[in-house]
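Can anyone check this?
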Amino acid sequence: MNFSDLGLSDAILRAVSERGYTDPTPIQKQAIPAVLSGIDLLAGAQTGTGKTAGFVLPILHRLSDKTIKGPSEGRPPIRALILVPTRELAAQVEESVREYGKYLKLASMTMIGGVNINPQITRLRSRVDILVATPGRLLDHVGQKTIDLSRIEILVLDEADRMLDMGFIRDIRKILTLLPKTRQNLLFSATFSDEIRSLAAGLLKNPETIEVARRNTTAETITHKVHPVDRDRKRQLLAHLVKEHNWHQVLVFTRTKHGANHLAEYLAKNGIPSLAIHGNKSQSARTRALSEFKEGSLQVLVATDIAARGIDISELPHVVNFELPNVPEDYVHRIGRTGRAGQSGEAVSLVCVDELKLLSNIEKLLKLKIPQEVIRGFEPDRNAKPEPIRMGGRR
């Protein structure tokens, strides 16, 4: 099956072809026909499965289809609302809308916090067909009466599990009360927790359910490896690995914002171009770091879990867990950024004595014993006693 078999318009197929895609991924094969038919959808898909195109392409088709009557008088209303958890993901999704819709007469915008609200207010005075927004900033606009959501035809909740993790459930419920009762609802989530099923039950009407990746699985093209090391020698070991193997485009995860800053500064002082991204960084700093990382001038990007949502680089070779995540499912989210679309990738974890229980939980989840390799010169102290892991903000 290729994209031309899915019933999409020639203008959309042309844009897809120009991006070098011919065959839809499993989520796209199932989601695109479902969305085109107008039904509600509950889709289980992890980052890297092509889920964004799975809803963007059919939304573009539906909104540009002349046989489906849109509103006839007044300023064209916002017709599709895509809610996402982070600024980075909003930028990425809206870029997909623009790329795939380049031959259509549809307009889109992002609405995110961390930037001046006034240019967004100005932008809303002209035509916006598709709005990609984070919940908090959308409600800021609602409070200022600068936006009208009463004619939304299609609602997407993307990465719904992460939105619930970040405490957006009340914001989402407020937004739902502002939308018309009759609309199409699409919910995408990496996992189907009880909270997600409860949200879906209240939101979706007779939905089709599709799930393409088994829950909490990792791509088979990813090689997993653990390097045991003392907690106070992790930074030196990471610098050694990057230099020794001449790694480029290395995405490194820390547990806290503070830790991300310190690590990026240490690597930069040791001749490895590095920057940190997290929730305390300005939007412009985050955008700059991401763009330098994508183009390859930045060797290492140090990120916290939430800040890394929305990082979409097609051939990311290395993900390093400088610190293991407290929640084993987050390991799957983290390393899901490598080994995409059949490319090989490597997930390396630097593990000290404090983290052995976390490692065991991850191995249980993956049903996999991760190979361990001690690096010469960085042998851990066998008599070291574990210390409690200091928790910090994940953003």
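Reply from J.R.: I decoded it. The CA atoms of residues 153 and 182 lie 7 Å apart.
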